[in-house]
Write a structure and sequence with these properties.
This protein has eight helices and twelve strands. It is of the alpha+beta class and 299 residues long. It has two domains: 136 residues, Aminopeptidase; 115 residues, Aminopeptidase (3-Layer(aba) Sandwich). The strands form two sheets. It has an eight-stranded mixed sheet with strand order 5-12-6-11-10-9-8-7, sandwiched between helices. Strands 1-2-3-4 form a four-stranded antiparallel sheet, with helices on both faces. Helix 2 runs antiparallel to helix 6 and helix 5 packs across helix 6.
Length: 299
């Protein structure tokens, strides 16, 4: 019998991450969110000190089968690959929660992969429309040779170490669309279980400026990595910095026993003439799916 309740504690968070791992290891279908995404949302996206709120879980006895995590913009969800029909209940709950908002216009948003026909069918039956906006997902097999990139003289890649570098890394997070303080970034570093400081990379210019960054994640259970987020300062573009950061990240992941790495690029409405997608392809990423925005106006 399916039991439903709100998020309660740290054990629930681990169960949510393990559901994602189970989906990936047994079906290969789960691309987003990753265990790392959950930690990024929890410690960096939310304004609260520990941002797990507006979250609902579906159980069969002690086995977590699905969860939904709402924010002001969308309802993110994960269903066990054999229980995708639970999306019906997730949508019903998220709509009832969304209607509690005191707004004249209320829209509920879901993100569904274009390879997930079952979820697309459920969303369509529930009155949702598929937009043209999507997030790109690429995958790179680390069994393939990693490109060696030569940076301009004086530039180098390193992981963050000093307080000043933590501050610079926090400041550069704005390039990924989410501004954070150094204090919040230190909190994230201390709390996120999957975070590894040796995988939080910076590109440094000859003058000592931070020219770019790439946070690399490694999940030791699934042996899969993720680049999220990464960016290059506008004053240091076209120097091979982005390619160097990704290549260095792949080398460090390979040394840890990682088999493959994912990358994402959000907010697209076309795959044409996008520098980020070109960079991903230049280091060997291949598109595996697009995660489309689906929406329904509730009020």
């Amino acid at each position: 019998m399916i039991k439903v309740r709100s998020y309660e504690n740290e054990n629930d968070f681990v169960l949510m991450q393990n559901l994602i791992r189970e989906n990936y290891l047994k079906s290969g279908e789960q691309l987003y969110p990753s265990p790392a995404d959950l930690e990024y949302w929890r410690y960096l996206y939310d304004d609260s000190p520990d941002g797990v709120r507006w979250t609902r879980l579906w159980f069969d006895d002690d086995h977590l089968l699905a969860f939904a995590w709402m924010n002001e913009e969308a309802t993110d969800f994960v269903c066990h690959y054999q229980h995708k029909d639970l999306l019906n209940q997730i949508i019903d709950w998220s709509e009832s929660e969304r209607l509690k908002e005191r707004k004249k216009k209320i829209v509920n948003v879901l993100y569904i992969f274009d390879c997930d026909q079952k979820s697309e069918t459920i969303a369509r039956q529930k009155g949702y429309q598929k937009s043209e906006v999507f997030n790109y997902y690429g995958k790179r097999d680390l069994a393939e040779p990693i490109p060696q990139v030569k940076l301009p003289e004086g530039y180098f890649i390193k992981n963050i170490e000093t307080e000043a570098e933590i501050g610079k890394r926090a400041e550069m997070n704005g390039l990924a669309g989410n501004e954070v303080t150094a204090e919040k970034y230190r909190f994230f570093m201390a709390k996120a279980a999957n975070y590894r400081q040796e995988l939080d990379l910076l590109a440094v210019s000859p003058s000592g400026e931070t020219a770019g960054f790439c946070t690399v994640w490694f999940d030791s259970v699934s042996k899969v990595g993720l680049f999220e987020p990464y960016g290059v300062d506008v004053n240091h573009l076209r120097k091979g910095i982005g390619k160097s950061l990704l290549s260095e990240g792949m080398s460090r992941l390979l040394a840890l026993g990682c088999s493959a790495v994912y990358v994402t690029h959000a907010g697209l409405d076309s795959e044409e003439i996008d520098p980020a997608l070109a960079l991903n392809e230049a280091v060997g990423f291949k598109k595996v799916a697009n995660n489309y925005l689906w929406y329904k106006q509730l009020k």
